[in-house]
Every structure is written in C-alpha cells, then in structure tokens.
Amino acid sequence: MKVYFDNASTTPLLPEVISKMTQVMNEDFGNPSSIHSYGRKSRSIIENARKIVAKSLNASIGEVFFTSSATEANNMILKNAVFNLNVKRMISSPTEHHCVLHSLDYLQKNTNVEVVYLKVDNYGNPDLEELSFILSNSNKKTLVSLMHGNNEIGTMSDITKIGEICRANNALFHSDTVQTIGKYPINVQLSAISFLSGSAHKFHGPKGVGFVYINNNNIINPYIHGGAQERNMRAGTENVPGIAGLAVALEYADLNMTKNQEKIHSVRSLFKKLLISEFKDIQFNGNQDHSNLNHILSVSFPPGPKADVMVINLDIEGIAASSGSACSAGIEEDSHVMQAINHPQERKTIRFSFSPFNTEEEVFYTIEKLKKII
Ligand code: PLP
C-alpha cells in the first residue's frame, strides 16, 4: 500500500487541474503579451485566474500578481518594503519559513533595517502583547511579518487580531498564508493585511507558480526587472498553464472547503487517537485546539531511533512523512521551529500531513507499520 502523509510539503494534483493544464498546453500556447488571437486567448486565461484569486481573498483584481512561487513572493515583499516603502523595522517570529527568515537575515546584513523577533511560547504562538508593546513604543515605520499557519507544527495565528494591532499602530502587515490558502477563509479587508503570499502546489495545483497580494495603498516597485508582464510588477513571460492550474485548484478548494476540512479532521483525529492508545509517551507539537492547522499533526516520539531513520523506515513501508530535524555533519539537530518551541532534542519529531484524499484505511495501515518500526 502507498500512503502519502506529506501534504504540507506538497500535494497531488487534482485531475481537473491536470486536464485544464493539458488543454492549455495543447491549445493555448500563445504568448500572453502578443496582440494576435493566440496571445489574447492566453491573456484571458491569466485574467480569469486573477479574478478567481482576487475573489477568494476579497481583494481587487489589480492587487494580485502571479509569481513563480511563494518564496519569490515573500522575498519580493520583504525586500522591496525596505527598498521602496521606507520600512525601518521588521517584526517577525523565529518559527517563520526559511524564505522569510533568510530574507530578513539578508536585510539585516545589507541594510540599516532593524529586525526584531517576537518571543514564541512552547506551542509556537508569537507573543502579541510584546508586538503591541513594541509597536506602541516607537513610531518607526514597521512591517510585521507573521505567518497564518506554521508548516512544521501547524500552529495558527489570529491574523485578524494581528491586523488590528498593526492597523492601530500604522504598521504594515505581511502574512505568509501558504499553508492556509484554500483551506481556511482569508479576507484581506477583514484582517487588514497589506501583503500575503500563496503557492499553488500546496492546494493541489502545480509547482512553480504562486501569487502575491499587494494592497493598493502599499505598492512596491518590481523585484524582477524586464518586460511589462503583470502590469510591470513581475517581468518574465507568464506560466500560463501553471496559472490556469492554480485557478482551477483554488476555485475547487474554496468551493469544497468545509467538506475537505471535515474529511481531513476525521483522518487526523483517528490518527491522533490511535497514536495515543497504541504508543507510550506520545506528545504532539504545536497548539492542539481549534487554532492548529487541521492538516498537520506533528508527533513527538520518545527518544529512540533517529527521526530521519524513522522516515526512511516508513518510506520502506510505502508511507511518506517528514522529520522535524536535519542531519548536519552526522549530528541530528532539531529544525529551527522545534528549537524555537524548546522541543526536547532527544525526542524525535515526525510530521504527518493530510489531504482530503487520505482515508481511514491509510491511518490503520500507518499505525500498524509504526508499531513494527518503533
Ligand atoms: N511558506 C511556507 C509556510 C511554506 O510551507 C512553503 C513551502 O514549503 C513556502 C513558504 C515556500 O513556498 P514555495 O514552495 O512556493 O516556494
């Protein structure tokens, strides 16, 4: 049996996405910048996709730009907020994705911007009182970058509350919403979001295509220079089949959000219940109430074989999951997220992440194989 429990890493493509992309690749190969009918057809595919993304976020069409990935979108926002919007201070958290953390490192080394990391508790929740305190004590132009859902432990932050704090203190608010787009409702007006990023391959769309939302009041300059694509904001001939696939996947995710969440919830709950009943001393990382991503279950196993070895053993049994650690020079080290939440280094973390396509049968199979491995 093959079991794919690594959906926070990437997701299988929906058949509807594959068929739309195949059709676009076969028939609609025109360059969207060309003025002839082939070009106009490709252009209309992109503009239709933009409408779908804008509707999903309650944004204006002109505030959505397609990119090659969420990594590109996050780099573009963070760097150009400093270069173009006179941002003097960034406030973030140590549990952000590397594309945010490494961009902040770059800015700290190469510009005068001040970078502040909020304290996080042992569940990965950033300290919002500290955020309010810092913002209300200085009127330095600030951008707050806090993700909506953590990709390793699933802890979700209250983006509406963060948006309110930012609005009250005139700070810009960027949220990496990669793990929540298409899974939870996101309304940029309600949550006072200035910038956000999304990536199609996390919601059953293709890899290599994402988008950035840039609020009309905070327009940054282009990050990639070249042609006039994406209304001069992002040069490079557009990935038309990818953008078409992204739109089909997002529309499907939004339409089926409640049904998909129920399916994922039942698989995750069963898995969690069986882990607790079948294994001694199991713990879970991240929030375990409603403020945890339904699709992520980060399991902390008692000290034992290396987490990477456990992942390989699961793989041998046909089960895909990921570990919360990395091996550097032969020494196993907890990831930056695990370290930030003070996860005991000797315990082993495996992240299981689900999609609506997973079944209870897969859960029973995985529990049996885990018993054998552990
Ligand atoms: N942000 C988060 C929270 C992610 O999980 C990922 C993907 O792993 C990214 C950003 C990067 O997305 P992309 O693969 O589109 O570059």
Main traits of this protein?
374 residues; seven-stranded mixed beta sheet; four-stranded antiparallel beta sheet; 15 strands; 40% helix; binds pyridoxal-5'-phosphate
Shape: globular
Rg on CA atoms, Å: 21 Å
Main sheet: which strands, in order across?
Answer: 2-8-7-6-5-3-4
Q: Give the helices and strands as they follow along the chain.
A: EHHEHEHEHEHEEEHHEEHEEEEHEH
Write down how many β-strands occur, each being a DSSP E stretch of 2 or more residues: 15
Mean pLDDT: 96
Pick out the low-confidence regions. Answer: none
What's the helix count?
Answer: 11
Structural class per helix/strand content?
A: alpha/beta
Question: Helix content range of the residues, please?
Answer: 25-40%
Short description:
The chain is of the alpha/beta class and 374 residues long. It has helices at residues 15-27, 37-57, 70-84, 98-110, 128-136, 159-168, 240-255, 257-278, 307-316, 336-340, 360-373, and strands spanning 3-4, 64-67, 89-92, 114-117, 142-145, 172-176, 195-199, 210-214, 283-285, 296-301, 319-320, 322-323, 325-328, 331-334, 348-353. Helix 1 packs antiparallel against helix 7.
